[in-house]
Amino acid sequence: MDCIFCKIAAGEISADILHRDADLVAFRDLRPQAPVHLLIIPTKHIETVLDLQPGDDAVMGRMLRLADDLARSQGLEEKGFRLVINCKAHGGQEVYHLHLHLLGGRPMHWPPG
Q1: Backbone dihedral region of 11: left (phi > 0), alpha (psi from -120 to 50 degrees) or beta?
Q2: Residues annotated as part of the active site
Q3: 16 alpha carbon, distance to own chain's centre
Q4: pTM strictly above 0.70
């Protein structure tokens, strides 16, 4: 498999890792869209949110808990932050390995601009 996030999870490609355990890896995005832009991925390859199986419920819950911990460690708890999961091309997904974006450090206006 030629998945860049699988390679990061396996330690084959370096990244600015903030968290690693058997199920999850969190690292800084190489093309940040905010002062804080972290990615949280499961170590298991799941292409999109549409590919989740009932056995993946626990890891999804852990992704959210890790996002909370990381947001606090980055000092985002007072002003807030955004969590985003993109799904497929029209949803803006660029890497087909499920990932949660944690963005903060500036106002997140919608629509952007």
Answers
A1: left
A2: 99
A3: 13
A4: yes
- What are the chain's domains? 4-104 (3.30.428.10)
Q: Is the peptide bond before 111 cis (omega within 30 degrees of 0)?
A: yes
Q: Copy the structure tokens of residue 12.
A: 């084959």
Can you read off the two tokens belonging to residue 25? 């890896």
Residue 11 and residue 33: Cα distance in Å, rounded? 24
Closest alpha carbon to 29 in 107, 112, 105: 105
The residue written with tokens 């985002």 in the block is 76
> What would the pLDDT profile of 45-81 be if each residue is shown by its tens digit?
999 999 999 999 999 999 999 999 999 999 999 999 9
